[in-house]
Amino acid sequence: MAKYNVNPWLEIQGMKEKMDSLMDEVLDRFEVREKKSERLATWCPVADSYETQDSYVIQVELAGLDKDQVSIELNRNELWVYGERRMVKEVSSSRYQFLERSYGPFARKFTLGHKADESGIRARFQEGLLTIVVRKGREAAGPQKIEVSEDPC
């Protein structure tokens, strides 16, 4: 049976690199960039997203919010949904048994595969569910063949 020399420090270094990569991915999900300032969101609402032949559909669960508490922005092929959920009432003379709902600023970024048609975006907020439909823009017709000629450019 062959004996291998294993350096445990190399294995630990590999695990550290994987953990760093995972933490970077998590922090990217919560990052919100606003005009000239940066802040971190404190929670991230759950969402579903699917694509049809001519549009993208994104549904974000935002129970307890009004449509005025949500902002939607499109920047090239990135759609941002952000806002803030505030605690409705605070308990002053009592103590919470448990507190599971998330409060504070939130943000979600959705990367669209094609350029979006900016005039074709619809958003509906009903019963705590934000539904956004983004119509796809025109795609390139495909690769173009360029003819080479002897004439000067």
Descriptors:
153 residues, alpha+beta, Immunoglobulin-like, four-stranded antiparallel sheet, 1 helix, 9 strands, flat, disordered C terminus
Task: Please describe what this structure looks like.
- By secondary structure, the protein is of the alpha+beta class.
- β1 and β2 (38-40) form a beta hairpin.
- The chain is flat, with a radius of gyration of 23 Å.
- The strands form three sheets. The chain has a four-stranded antiparallel β-sheet with strand order 3-4-9-8, with no helix packed on it. The protein has a three-stranded antiparallel β-sheet with strand order 5-6-7, with no helix packed on it. The protein has a two-stranded antiparallel sheet with strand order 1-2.
- The chain has one helix and nine strands; from the N terminus they run αβββββββββ.
- The chain has a single domain, classed as Immunoglobulin-like (Sandwich), CATH 2.60.40.790.
- Mean pLDDT is 75; it is low at 32-39 and 140-153.
- Helix content is 15%, strand content 39%.
- The termini are far apart.
- The protein has one helix at residues 8-30; strands spanning 31-33, 38-40, 47-51, 55-61, 70-75, 78-85, 104-111, 116-126, 129-136.
Topology:
Layout: H1 8-30, E1 31-33, E2 38-40, E3 47-51, E4 55-61, E5 70-75, E6 78-85, E7 104-111, E8 116-126, E9 129-136
Antiparallel strand pairs: 1-2, 3-4, 4-9, 5-6, 6-7, 8-9
The proportion of residues forming helix, as a percent range, comes to 10-25%
Which architecture name does CATH use? Answer: Sandwich
Structural class: alpha+beta
Number of helices: 1
Global mean pLDDT: 75
The CATH topology assignment is Immunoglobulin-like
Order of helices and strands: HEEEEEEEEE
Placed side by side, the strands forming the largest sheet appear as 3-4-9-8
Range of strand content: 35-45%
Largest sheet: 4 strands, antiparallel
User: How many strands in all?
Assistant: 9
Shape: flat
Q: What ranges have pLDDT less than 50 throughout 5 or more consecutive residues?
A: 32-39, 140-153
Distance between the termini: 70 Å
Q: Can you tell me the CATH class?
A: Mainly Beta
Cα-based radius of gyration, to the nearest Å: 23 Å
- The domain tally reads 1
